[in-house]
Structures are given as structure tokens and as C-alpha cells.
Amino acid sequence: MMHIRGLLLGSVAFAGLSSAFAGAASAQERSPATARSNSAPSEIIVTAQRREENLQDVPIAATALGGDDLDAKAVQTIEDLQYAAPSVSITDQGLTQSVNIRGIGIASGSPAVANGVATYLDGVFQPPILTSSSFFDVASIEVLRGPQGTLVGSNSTGGAIFVNTVNPNTDGVEGYAKAHYGSYDSVGFEGALNMPVTDTLAVRVAGITQWRDSYYEDLGPFDNDPDSLDEQAVRAGVMWQPGAFRALAKAEWIDKNTGGYAYRPIEGSDFENARTDDIRELTYNAPTLNHERAVNSSLELRYDLDSGIVLRSVTGYTNKRINNLYDNDGALAPSDTDPTASFNQVQDQFVRERQWTQEINIISPTEGAFNWIIGGYYQKNKVDVIIENRSGDIVGDPTEIVNYQDKLTLGVFAQLGYWLTPALELQLGGRYSHYTVDSTGNVTIGSEGPVFGPDGLVVADLAGDHEDGRPTGKIALNWTVNDDNLIYVFAARGYKPGGANNATSEFGPETVWDYEIGWKANLFDRHLRTQLGAFYMDYKDFQFDALDPVTGQTGVVNISNATIKGFEVQAQAVFGGFSLDGGIAYVDSELDPVSIVNSRELPNIGQLGPQCPAGTPSSPPACFDYQPFLGTAGGGPNLFSPKWSYNAGAQYEFLLGGDASLTPRINYAYIGSRWTNLFYNPQLDRLASRGLLSAMVTLRYDDWTIEAYGTNLTDKEYVSGQSGNNEFYGAPREFGLRASVRF
Questions:
Q1: Could you give the 3-state DSSP secondary structure of residue 83?
Q2: Potential cystine with 269: which of 512, 538, 725, 736 (Cβ 3.0-4.6 Å)?
Q3: Smallest Cα–Cα separation from 359: which of 290, 409, 400?
């Protein structure tokens, strides 16, 4: 690790030294006076539809952020996108983050469940685990809202997020170096270096390394440092373009340690006795660990035919691994006064997911009456989950869960645009996705005790298989009123596959129909740019974790249906030195009621076993009668879906003479309250609303930048997520200084 860290530091230092030799002639020309003279929002180019297009010309609801916007809006990880894009909700759940758009995405931590918001890195779909790594050397991020069933496919019922890193180029030696120091001894270095090798070959290397102390103090005997940060990542890219053909390869390595997840028992849960008055004080009685590693790679091959048709291939491979040690109850050991206070519940977890993807596109030019895209898609995933749970002296301890899954996704798609008139386009899209999964594994108890022998007792067989497929697509009318106004209306269908809990328990796919109308406009001589839209969504077969009485294990079930409706407004404005941007979303949803086991009401005595046959009394872990614990859930809002969310940012650039400027900026983001469980317990299942304020002051001189920043300026204490009986918290107030140079 020290060797790798040294390489990263050396890369950043080399980037900084290279800037001295590159000189002003190689630098990207930008002066405050030049920027002020434009006095209009810069054009935003998006690529989510496989072409480079102006965001204002794309008939979908989307938010796009350039690389420079990330620091300005305090966006460092995917989690921060909810403060910069309307209708986005990202909730901490430990291993996976629940990423939802308009209340649709993922509400389960099961490895059998697919994303509902597809995340792509350089054109390659990303599995749901390991989404917390920091952004670096990013060209743009595109957030598409609503189902993207044609071009994205089976994992985009809620929408899609595209993260595009900077490509190598042959224009010259260029790059940047950046360093920061902040609260909690936060130290970080970041840099990139672009180097042309020949007129047709270029290489780009980028890296980041950063450390931070924990926001928390562990009062337990192991003195853990959960939610600290020790992160390193390196990305290398090679671009070869000898004429009409281009090959672009990228490979990324990530290593991140956080010391474990930081959480406390929810007030009102079985272990609330362990809570102190300070949310930054934890009471773990077991060691904690969170170590994430990832390798991401992609290869894009592109050939432009003389006719203007583009042949495109994107190949991807990812290998993501995570080791976790949990103190599941987040509480100290039993005391003499309250011997039931804690059972010292500990979990050792290992998850690995490997993925191979291949996409082929044939893309037409956009001139003429017709334009089209056709393609095919292949994705294979191998998921390994190994978990060991220990619960003190409970009979049947330990519980060992082993699950291996092989998933295959296939798809074919086409999208056609036809100009009915010079201003009115009819757009048709269709896709068919096919999905299969085979899983093996079991749940074993008591392998280290005298009751069940050294091999333990298998209480659940997790072997199973599932197969499904659905057509998805879109029909739209896009009216280009003039160069400054686009009005569109469409209906689109999205689909997320089902899966298998075991040989006797499967869950079906989710589907959604989305009906939208939108208007994109450039106003006031293009000083103001707006995007407005309204939607109505019919959501079927919501997938959720629930206890399966057949096995006594938690599995995934199709809970109910929902209706979702609302509107979104975004705007960006530039008037001289003053800039303003923001967005607001209203999302109203209602889930149908459903009857499921209320797991919180079950006795906390370890493994309960499967449902007892009729007339047989409960005798855990052999069997248990779950009938008295059935309850009515649902009947309220969709989960992880705030009704209101909005964000706004404002800045003013003061010209100091020459190539110097001073720009103060302020950001505010509000996320409404949201529910995390279908029983809607206001004490256990509700995340309160929060509003976060951040600010920065940026001094620029030529290619040098110094920024003073502050996040969560009011030091808001808020719950950022829940998992079981525990809750997670957002970061406290932080200040820091960041310096960078571009060359």
C-alpha cells in the first residue's frame, strides 16, 4: 500500500512539474475577461444517446454536470448527486447505496436484485456494489430521469447515470495537479497528465489519493475508526486514432478503506440503550472493517464510414470485491442491570462481483429525414456472497450464509427518428431484454457447536433459478418550435428483471410506464436556459426484502403496485459576472397495501426456522409459526422518495485585473423526508428532511486556482440512511483549502 501511495504522489508531483515546462502556450486559454464576455450558460454536450448532442436538443429529462461543476457544487461521490439533480434520492444502506430517481431504483440489499437506476462508467454498466468511490478526472456526469428502456435496457426503471472520464488526446501535453487540506485532517492529492506519443496515439494517466480521520469516536473496547477514509485510485487511458478508426482503452484500479460503516441503533429499537446524546459517539463491542477494491476496464472501438454511419463496439470488464466486519447491533455487551441489552451480534461479510459486457451499435448520421440506432447487448455477472453471523450464546450460533449467482442479460434494440415536417420529429424505440440467473448456496447453523455436529444443520437451500424477459421502448413527438425552444411528449416503458431466492421462491420483474411532457427553452437572448417537465408513472410489482415464511429467511418479493406523478424544473442563468443554477422536483407516489411478516415484532432469539406445519407448535430453529406476526404494509408513499427536493447555487465573478478573478459561490440543497420501510413507523422508518448549505471562494490567476470551501455550514445533524435496526448519519461541517494548476 505504501508503495502504491508513493506512486500516486509521484504522479501528482510529476504532473505539477510538467506544467512548468508546458508553459502558457500549451495551457487551455481562459481569462476572466473572456469568460465574462460570453455572458451565457455554456453549451452542455451529452452522449447518453450514443451521439454527442446539446442537452437542450435532447427530448428527455436530464441533468448534466461538467467536470468543473463537481467542485463548485460539492459533488465528490455519487451520493452527492442528490444535492445537484432534482428527483434523485440516494440513501445509505451499508454495502449498497439505495439509488432512486422519482422513487424508483433499488430498495433491497439482496444480491439477487438488480439496479433500477443504471450507472455507467465510460459506457460500461456498473454493478450496484462499490458505488462510493470518489470522482476524479471526470469530463461530465449525466443524470437521466425516467425509464431508459430503449438504449440502456433492463436496469433503468428509474433512470440512468453516466459518468464520463476525460479521454486522452493528441492536442499536446496537458493536465492538472490538485491538493487539498481540510477538517478532520483531510489530506488529498489528485492529478492527470495527457501525453501525445505520436500524431495518432495518446496516453492519459490520472490518480487520486486521500485520507481523513473518522467523524466518530468509538467508545467500545476495540477503538474502531469507522467512516474514516484511506482511498487510492489510478486510471490509465490510451487512444489511437489513425483516421476514421478510433480505439479507446481505459483501465482503473480502486482501493478504499473506511474502517467500517458508522451507525447507531435507531431510537425505539431493541438496542437503543447503547445510544448516547452525541450522534458522533458509537458503542461497538466488535472490530469493524470496510475494504473495497475494484478493477474497471473498457475498450471502445469506433469506425466512421464515408456515408456517415458509425460502427461502435464497447467492451467492459469489472471485478469488485468488498470485505466488511459489522457489529450488527451497534451496541456494547450485556450489562448486569439489563442482560438483554445486546447479544453481541457480529457479521463477517465478503462480496465479490465480476462482470463482462459487450455492446454493439450501428449509428446513422442525423442529416436527412431518417436517423436511427440499432444494437445488441451481452452481460454476464458472477456474484459471490459469503456471510458469517454470530450472536453471542444463542443456540445455533454461528449462522453461515453462502450464495453464488450466475446472471446473464441479453438485449437487442433499435431507435428510429423520422422528421414528419422540418420541425416535428416522430421517435420510436424498442428493445427486448432476456435475463437468466442460476444460484447455489445454503444457510447453515451450529457448525461449531455440539448440537448439530461439525458441519452444522442446513436450514435453508438457496439454490434456484429464474428466467424472464420483457419488451421495452418509447414513442415520442419532438417539436422544435425554433432554435431556442423544444417541446416533447412521450410514453416509455422500463423493466427490471426478477430473480430467485431459492428453489421454491422466485420474484418477478418490475415494470413501469412513464408518460411525460417537457419544454426546453433559451430565454433573454440565451442568458437563461430552462428545462421543464411533468410526468405520470404506472409502476408494477415493486421488489422489496421481506421474510419468507417457507424458509424462515429474508428474501425478495413483489410487494405491490404504485402510481407516481410530479414535475421538475431546472434553470441556468448567466448575466455578466453573475451566475445562477438550480432545480426543483415534486414527486407524489402511492403504493398499494400488502400483507407481509413484520420482522421487527419477531422474538430476537436467533434462527427461527421455516413455517411450522399446521397444528405443529413453534420450536426454533426447527420451525416457527409466523402467522401472528403478519401485518398490513404499504398503502402510503413509495420508499426512498422525498415529495419535495430542490437545489440552488449562485456566484459572482469579480475581475481583479489581468488574468485574475475572485468568485464567491453559495449552494443550498433540500431533500424532503422519506420512508425506508413499508410499515411506515414514524420512529423507526422515516428519514427527516434536511437542508444543507455549502460555500466556496475561488481565486484564479492564469492557470492557478486557490479555493477555500465549507460544506454543511450549519453543521446539520441528520440521518442519511437505515439498515435493519441501525441508522447512518451525514457528514458534519467541514472546512478546507484546495489548490490546483492546469497546464
A1: helix
A2: 725
A3: 409
